[in-house]
Design brief:
With 468 residues, the protein is of the alpha/beta class. It is built from 17 helices and 15 strands. β6 and β7 form a beta hairpin. The site of S-adenosylmethionine has 23 residues, from α10 and β10.
Length: 468
């Protein structure tokens, strides 16, 4: 640990790179800034020039004193020698506008990162920001420092910790959380660095989320390991029937034009969004309630040149200004939504005149369900309708030219292909996941096939327009 502060300064941060990091920071003019792991102060002087006050913290005495000797002439800087992982830090709750750290968390254990994240949100005022930049993915080779312990984690670790653990309540029982404003690689200027230095920007906001359903998604149906298992079946980037193949077929119906704005509701890990943005130069916003899904999507967006944005958001609570999107696209997500009419009315408002709505979703036959199917629907918490009634809800929300197609035959074909592919790679699948995981998939797919072949379970495709 001793070498960590010196080390964070010895990463070659040329002035171009420092300028890039500074350019990414949220506004901090006239604000109270805490700089964690300040080192000898490469950023301290930059921050001091615009902030009202900077508290520069480092746990190596010599290092923080050196920082003081370099930056002590900035009278708005307080230098504190303290370990950020212990509670000895003299920072009050709700007192800080902006917390900055650069290459610090990578030197902390998972537990320490979690504890620090929980404390950071407490220090922040509502509306305040956190910025941190970490080295991810590849190990930083430094043969001189054999005893260095550093964790070059996958970015999803940080996204998940700060999204999932950072909740605080005030005295009036209001809940606050961190909203992820951005997650992107730095060091791309001049094209000379690999894209493993990732920065995050968060803002402390009031939470209107009771988190019950989100926790269900993240801990039951869409655990990280479960997502990767499903992805193996559906294809890279996808958690819905047919993966890229059906995506290509359906996106072709949208007649996308460069710079059009597309909202993907329940975007999962973003496969369709990357496909649309890369191939049609559209600007895609993907929202999903599952932190696990968005963490993976963000990770995969790193380094891509196309325009994709991801956000953890509940589509039933999210709002957008009227006439924001040219297309709203949603694949096999709305089955989770109980109040579909109200969601469709929101979609109608968010679309521009002439905008298009495209949905595929699980449906059911019109009669009563068998006890097994009823149990499956109940256990998953789904809300399923017959294709005709589903299309009618879309029409009732104001949409015109509504096309409702029963695509169950295509669904059956896709299920058969997916099942065969999994069975063919049984050994590899078990090696990568587990025997239990393999059996779950095979049983689940066989059950879906039986329900679909009996006509009970259906797959619906819906296309509609907001007529001018
Ligand atoms: C079957 S997955 C489909 C993912 C993606 N559309 C795809 O095709 O790969 C359904 C997704 O809906 C998301 N979801 C469920 N309820 C949601 C809500 N209220 N708001 C946003 N997303 C939601 C889930 O987290 C999950 O990622």
């Amino acid at each position: 640990m001793e070498s960590m502060m010196v080390d964070s300064d010895s990463h070659e941060l040329d002035s171009e790179e420092t300028a890039e990091v500074i350019s990414l920071l949220p506004p901090y003019e006239g604000k109270t800034v805490v700089e964690l792991g300040a080192g000898i102060g490469r950023f301290t002087s930059e921050l001091a020039q615009r902030a009202a006050q900077v508290i520069a913290v480092d746990f190596v005495e010599d290092v923080i004193r050196k920082n003081e000797s370099i930056n002590g002439h900035h009278k708005n800087v307080k230098f504190q020698c303290a370990d950020v992982t212990f509670s000895e830090l003299d920072i009050h709750e709700d007192s800080v506008d902006f917390i900055f750290s650069n290459l610090l968390l990578m030197y902390l254990s998972d537990e320490e990162v979690k504890l620090l994240a929980e404390r950071m949100i407490k220090w922040l005022k509502v509306g305040g920001y956190i910025f941190f930049r970490e080295s991810c993915f590849q190990h930083y080779e430094n043969s001189d420092k054999k005893n260095d312990v550093s964790y070059h984690r996958e970015p999803r670790f940080y996204s998940k910790v700060f999204k999932e653990l950072c909740f605080v309540k005030d005295d009036s029982e209001n809940v606050f959380e961190l909203s992820l404003l951005g997650c992107k690689p730095t060091g791309v200027f001049g094209n000379k660095k690999s894209q493993n230095q990732i920065c995050w920007i968060w803002q402390k906001v009031r939470s209107d989320n009771d988190r019950g359903f989100q926790l269900f998604l993240d801990t039951v149906q869409y655990k990280s390991s479960g997502i990767l298992k499903y992805e193996r079946v559906f294809g890279h980037g996808f958690i819905s029937p047919g993966g890229l193949e059906t995506t290509k077929e359906f996106v072709a119906k949208l007649d996308l034009k460069p710079r059009q704005r597309v909202l993907d509701v329940g975007c999962g890990i973003g496969g369709a969004d990357f496909y649309m943005a890369e191939n049609f130069s559209v600007e895609v916003v993907g929202i999903d309630l599952s932190v696990n899904m968005i963490s993976l999507a963000l990770e995969r967006a790193i380094g891509l040149a196309c325009s994709v944005e991801f956000e953890v958001a509940d589509c039933t609570k999210k709002t957008y200004p009227d006439h924001t999107f040219d297309v709203i696209y949603s694949r096999d997500t709305i089955l989770h939504i109980q109040d579909k009419p109200s969601l469709f009315r929101s979609f109608y408002k968010w679309l521009k005149p002439g905008g298009k709505l495209f949905i595929t979703d699980y449906c059911r036959n019109a009669g009563t369900s068998s006890p097994e199917f009823a149990e499956y629907i109940k256990q998953r918490g789904y809300d399923l309708h017959d294709v005709k009634a589903y299309g009618q809800m879309i029409e009732d929300a104001g949409f015109g030219e509504v096309v409702s197609e029963d695509r169950t035959n295509q669904f059956i074909q896709v299920l058969q292909q997916e099942l065969e592919a999994v069975e063919e790679q049984k050994d590899r699948f078990i090696l990568d996941f587990s025997e239990e995981g393999y059996n779950d998939i095979v049983c689940g797919w066989k059950a879906k096939l039986n329900r679909s072949l009996s006509g009970e379970q259906r797959w619906g495709l819906f296309f509609a327009k907001k007529i001018n």
